[in-house]
Structure formats: structure tokens, C-alpha cells
Design goal:
One of its GO terms (cellular component) is cytosol. Its EC number is 1.11.1.6. This is Catalase. It is a single chain. By secondary structure, the chain is of the alpha+beta class. The protein folds into 3 domains: 336 residues, Catalase HpII,  Chain A, domain 1 (Beta Barrel); 58 residues, Catalase, four-helical domain (Hemocyanin, N-terminal domain, Up-down Bundle); 141 residues, Class I glutamine amidotransferase (GATase) domain (Rossmann fold), CATH 3.40.50.880. It is 27% helix and 17% strand. It has 17 helices and 20 strands. Strands 2, 3, 4, 5, 6, 7, 8, 9, 10 and 11 form a 10-stranded antiparallel sheet that branches. Helix 2 packs across helix 9. The termini are far apart.
């Protein structure tokens, strides 16, 4: 190996790779016991589409080691924030499931929801380009039910065997622990290029979905295919959706990077303040259901976690609403100690043979054992069910229950064989009796091998602005990759999705342009575009730039009207204290140009003031220009009009200048509700 050093005194990238792979180079893969491994792509299943088998010692060893790599914070989803709330079903779902909390519209079920980023540590910024966790614990009368999902409906891999590999690749590179909370580096994109099942999820993470405006404005998905089972034992395959009442909205990438510097707690602060203000976040629970007899009628495998069910083919039925109405009292005791697990189900909800889900059913309990110090994490207040629980488990770290008597086994006569099991009619959980047969095999079903058609479907479904943002995202991410080979591999891979996309970012990173390819996938799913979402002005934050000498009556009336529309105007000026109008009315200043920034607001209303100087307007101009470059709504009255005229913004889309208050307010509110004015990109 070369001993030459680079100009910074460290080894070159090539030398680092040689150094850090020497021990394993040209060696055969083995278990920790030294047993040679014949297959490291697939878990052991009963038939190609069957369930994962518990005897798969290689999978269990690999996953157990991965689950225990970090203490005490979560390996993934470490950066999170949570809130309490309640869920209420709209109508009885008895036809489809016997789950008790989905039966009576007159009853509410307590919930606890934790939102999170995936890749970063607890101290990382919240506006990283990343998937977001969306985990909900329902405290039902039949026991706790955990719907553990993300804000993206698909995942990078198809089999849980590869989960440690994916997370190792996306996490900071181990030789220098960089970069934090970012996928823009060599190992992640090397993984992508060499594991092409990731194509669909990568499209989502390169889209605006990966930089949401807030937790309150992002969708949630259960990702996997589950089952509903009714009293008669009839099964429907089901996918779960959370639909935000405020719609699904995002920031732009330049804005996201600046927010991480201006306020790395931006998302948690937004959630906390909304609840404290009484603007309770609301999400509707939707389900897509497929009768068991229709399992094979689609052109994709419904058990494949890298595939979604297009809403135009399988409509989403909205069945209830969740309202988050109480902040946590203690972040550690609640947000950090909450333990979710997709295997925490109640009668009427069951599993499919999705191989990623099957692996998670093992992994989550294993993770909690080390992270929360033992087997009694269910007794922590945030995890404790609201219904009684009784069993023969005893002792262990963190035990809080004081069990009396000598009997701790089943069956017994000394305690009249109690606690006793329950029949299905008594509410006992019964697994769905699916017929399973097949050879014990490490393989992947042929139906899982289409990696690009739904990635193309996603691309076809985007608006022109969203497509441009994705090209820019790929350009940024791959522009950070040092390996030219990896860059070219990714270009060639995504040419299978869209030549337009691949050529767009290939040019930006100096890679070889792929050949033009015809793509047979022409279908689009309009539901996938964030342009087709609810647009509401409610709870949007408006920076009100105002100085001494403003026109009292008109301004005060406009601010009151904005509040009545559900907006949150906050005054920004050059110093804290109060600004005074011409007729001595006063406004309390909440932010200065130093402590606030346009990226922390959804819109800007500039008023100015007759008594302010050039320094004030210079700061205001910079503030407004940035908001304009991020396509936000801008309104102006009085001196603010002159500023926008001078900046030549006055005739741009989303810029509202009106003399008449009655005309200004509704136009400005509509402009804010539109979220962004992408037309500026082509003006």
C-alpha cells in the first residue's frame, strides 16, 4: 500500500479504502461463530413468498448485533419529538375487522405519537433530507396497538436481512463519523447503485417529501401490508395512511439548510407551539383494503415493501381522525422511553408475509431489551397499557410489579390455573390461519424483481416544479460523492427510471450522459404529487415587518383580519420593544432581523414605517428577497409597497399589493394558502 500522504496530511480516499478493507479482503463471509454463509441477501422463508422462519440463526445473529450497536439512543429515529392525543373512528369497521377501537364512533382512544428523522443522532438538525418516522401507540381496551410507520409509503429494501446493511451505508462513514444526518456521501450511494431495489424509495427521498414543512403537514404510512380480520375470520389485506387535515407541504432545499442553522429545533418547536396555542394537529386515518382473493390481480406484488398501491386503483377509505392535543411533560420519560413495535397488535389486526415486516417483528423487541435495560420496558408509564395485564413473567431489570404468591407457571392447580387463557370469543388473540407450505429456502420471489416501474410511476406523477426539485436533489447529493464510479453507476441506474431525470443530474455532476431510453411505464398517480393536496392558510406564520410611524388604524385592522383567518402574524423589526404608529398605537416586537429569518415563516407582510431609516429598509429588503426566492407569499401596504416596487417584485405571482384592506386581506390569505408560487421559476 502506498505511503504517500495528501496535502492535508491524511491518506487519500483510495488509500483509506485500502486500509479499512484489508482485514476482510478476499475473505469468505461467515457468522460470528465462523460458519461460512451461503446467502446474505434473503432471510430463510417457508417458500419464496412465505413467512420468515425463527430458525434462521444467521438472520437473528446479524440483526441482534445490529440492534445492539448503540446505547442508549435509538440506532435509527434517534431525533424525535412526540405528543399525546386521541383517536375516534367515523363509523364501525365491523365488516372488515374485529379490532375493538374501530367499532364505536362514540368512543375515543388515547394515543401517543412520535415523529422522527431516521439518519441523524439526537443532536442533529431536523431539516435533513431524510425519511420521517410517524409512530402511533393506541392505548386500546384490548391492549396497546402500535402503528409504526414513515412519511413515505415504501422502503429501500425488500428483506429485513439487508436492514443493517442499509443503515450502515446511510449512517456517517465509520472511519471519520461524517457526514451527520445526511445521505450525500459515498457509502449511501454505493449501496443504492448496488442494491437497485432501493430505486423507488430513493425517488421519494429526493423529492420534496423528504423535507416537510412540519410534522403537522406530512402524511404517514404503515409501509407494510397488514391484515384486517373480522369476526367471521374473513381477511382483507390492508395498508394504513395518515392524511394531515392541513395538507401535505414541504420547504425547499436551500430553505431547509438555512433552517438547520437558524433553528435546528424547527419541527419540534412548530409542533409544541401549535398544541400550546390550541391549534391541535389533526390527521385522518385511511385504509386501502384488498380482499384476500384479489391478492394476485395487480401488476406488482402487494407484499413487496418497495411498492405502493396506487390510490386510483385501490382507493383510500377515511375511517377516523386523530387529534394531538397535549404536549409531553418530560421528553426523556415519554418521548425517549416510549417503545414501539409493529408486533404490538390487537385482535382483528394481523400480519402478512412481507419479508421486511417479518424481520421487524423480531428486531423491535430485541432493540428495546438493550435500549431500555431489560424485558420490563412495558411497565414504564408511557408504555403501560390502559387495560389490566396478567401473566407468569417475573423479575428482570426494571421490574415494577410486585407479584405475590408462589405460582409463576402455566398450567397449575395451586392458583386454579390462573391467569387463564382466553378463547377467541372472549377476546383472545388468534393468528389468522393462513395455509403455508414450501421448501425452506433463501430466495426472493420473482414477483419482487421489478425495481423501476413504480419509481417511474412516481416520476410521471410529479409536477414540473417537483421534477426540477428532484433533479436538483440528485445533483446536490451526488455532487458530494467523491467516487466517480459510484456517480456513474447511479446515473446509469436511474436512466432505467427516467432518461430526463438521469440526464438532468448527470450533466450537473459531470458524469457521462446516458443513452436515450424509451420507457413503457406511462401511468401516473396524481395522488402522489403534493400539488394535489389540501391548501389551507390556518396556522401559517406571517412575518410582519413594521417600524415606527406606521398607519395605525389600517394596519391594526389587517392584522386582526389575518388572525381571524387562522394565521399567526408575528412582528419583526430592528429592535425589541414596541413600535409606535402615527396615532400612538403600539405593536409589541417579537423578533428582530437578527433573531428571526424569513425561512422561519410561511409568508411576509411588509408595512415599514415613515420614521425608519435606510438601515431598516436594507435589512427588510434582504429578509424579503430571501422569502421571494423561496416562492413564498409576500404582501405590502404603505411604505412596504415602495420597497417591493424598487425590488421589481411587485408584478410577480404571489406578491399582493392593494390599497383597499377589504381587497388586500382575501388576496393575501389566498396567496398564503397556496403554500408556494412555483410560477416564479419560469418568470
Amino acid at each position: 500500500m502506498s505511503n504517500e500522504r495528501n496535502v492535508n496530511g491524511g491518506n487519500s480516499k483510495k488509500e483509506q479504502l485500502e486500509q479499512f478493507t484489508t482485514d476482510d479482503r478476499n475473505q469468505k463471509l461467515t457468522t460470528n461463530q465462523g460458519v461460512k454463509v451461503s446467502e446474505d441477501e434473503f432471510s430463510l422463508k417457508a417458500g419464496e413468498r412465505g413467512p420468515t422462519l425463527m430458525e434462521d440463526f444467521h438472520f437473528r445473529e446479524k440483526m441482534t448485533h445490529f440492534d445492539h450497536e448503540r446505547i442508549p439512543e435509538r440506532i435509527v429515529h434517534a431525533r424525535g419529538f412526540a405528543a399525546h392525543g386521541e383517536f375516534q373512528v367515523y363509523e364501525s369497521m365491523k365488516e372488515f375487522t374485529k379490532a375493538g377501537f374501530l367499532q364505536d364512533p362514540g368512543k375515543t382512544t388515547p394515543v401517543f405519537v412520535r415523529f422522527s428523522t431516521v439518519a441523524g443522532s439526537r443532536g442533529s438538525g431536523e431539516l435533513a433530507r431524510d425519511a420521517r418516522g410517524f409512530a402511533t401507540k393506541f392505548y386500546t381496551e384490548e391492549g396497546n396497538y402500535d402503528l409504526v410507520g414513515n412519511n413515505i409509503p415504501v422502503f429501500f429494501i425488500q428483506d429485513a436481512m439487508k436492514f443493517p446493511d442499509f443503515v450502515h451505508a446511510v449512517k456517517p462513514e465509520p472511519h471519520n463519523e461524517m457526514p451527520q444526518a445526511a445521505s450525500a456521501h459515498d457509502t449511501f450511494w454505493d449501496f443504492v447503485a448496488n442494491n437497485q431495489e432501493s430505486a423507488h424509495m430513493v425517488m421519494w427521498t429526493m423529492s420534496d417529501r423528504a423535507i416537510p414543512r412540519s410534522f403537522r403537514m406530512m402524511e404517514g404510512f404503515g409501509v407494510h401490508t397488514f391484515r384486517f380480520v373480522n369476526e367471521a375470520g374473513k381477511s382483507h389485506f390492508v395498508k394504513f395512511h395518515w392524511k394531515p387535515v392541513l395538507g401535505t407541504h414541504s420547504v425547499v432545499w436551500d430553505e431547509a439548510q438555512k433552517i438547520n442553522g437558524k433553528d435546528p429545533d424547527f419541527h419540534r418547536r412548530d409542533l409544541w407551539e401549535a398544541i400550546e396555542n390550541g391549534d391541535y394537529p389533526e390527521f385522518e386515518l385511511g385504509v386501502q383494503m384488498v380482499p384476500e382473493e384479489d391478492e394476485f390481480r395487480f401488476d406488482f406484488d402487494i407484499l413487496d415493501p418497495t411498492k405502493l398501491w396506487p390510490e386510483e386503483d385501490v382507493p383510500v377509505k377515511l375511517i377516523g381522525k386523530m387529534t394531538l392535543n397535549r404536549n409531553v411533560d418530560n421528553v426523556f420519560a415519554e418521548t425517549e422511553q416510549v417503545a414501539f413495535h409493529p408486533g404490538h397488535v390487537v385482535p382483528g389486526i394481523d400480519f402478512s408475509n412481507d419479508p421486511l415486516l417479518q424481520g421487524r417483528l423480531f428486531s423491535y423487541t430485541d432493540t428495546q431489551l438493550i435500549r431500555l435495560g431489560g424485558p420490563n420496558f412495558h411497565e414504564l408509564p408511557i408504555n403501560r397499557p390502559v387495560c389490566p395485564f396478567h401473566n407468569n413473567q417475573r423479575d428482570g431489570y426494571g421490574r415494577q410489579t410486585i407479584n405475590r404468591g408462589p405460582v409463576s407457571y402455566h398450567k397449575n392447580s395451586l392458583a386454579q390455573n390462573t391467569p387463564a387463557t382466553s378463547t377467541e370469543a372472549e377476546g383472545g388473540y388468534k393468528h389468522y390461519e393462513e395455509k403455508v407450505e414450501g421448501h425452506k429456502i433463501r430466495a426472493r420471489s420473482e414477483s419482487f424483481k421489478d425495481h423501476f416501474s413504480q419509481a417511474t410511476l412516481f416520476w410521471n406523477s410529479m409536477s414540473d416544479a417537483e421534477k426540477e426539485h428532484m433533479i436538483q436533489a440528485f445533483s446536490f447529493e451526488l455532487g458530494k460523492v467523491e467516487s466517480k464510479s459510484v456517480q456513474q453507476q447511479v446515473v446509469d441506474m436511474f436512466a432505467n427510471v427516467s432518461t430526463e431525470l438521469a440526464r438532468g443530474f448527470a450533466k450537473a455532476i459531470g458524469a457521462e450522459l446516458p443513452q436515450e431510453q424509451s420507457n413503457s411505464v406511462t401511468k401516473a398517480s396524481p395522488a402522489l404529487s403534493q400539488e394535489n393536496t389540501t391548501h389551507s392558510p390556518k396556522t401559517r406564520k406571517v412575518a410582519v415587518i413594521v417600524g415606527d410611524g406606521f398607519k395605525d388604524g389600517e394596519v391594526m385592522a389587517i392584522l386582526e383580519d389575518l388572525k381571524n383567518e387562522g394565521l399567526q402574524p408575528e412582528v419583526v423589526s430592528d429592535q425589541l420593544g414596541k413600535v409606535m404608529g402615527r396615532d400612538k398605537a403600539e405593536l409589541e416586537v417579537q423578533h428582530t432581523f437578527l433573531t428571526a429569518d424569513s425561512v422561519l415563516f410561511d409568508a411576509v407582510y411588509i408595512i415599514g414605517g415613515k420614521e425608519e431609516d435606510k438601515a431598516f429598509y436594507k435589512k427588510a429588503t434582504l429578509f424579503i428577497y430571501e422569502a421571494f426566492s423561496h416562492y413564498k407569499a409576500i404582501g405590502a401596504t404603505e411604505e412596504g409597497r415602495k420597497l417591493l416596487n424598487a425590488a421589481e417584485m411587485d408584478k410577480s405571482p404571489g406578491v399582493i399589493i392593494e390599497d383597499d384592506k377589504k381587497s388586500f386581506v382575501p388576496k393575501f390569505v389566498d396567496a398564503i394558502a397556496s403554500h408556494r408560487h412555483w410560477e416564479r421559476e419560469v418568470v
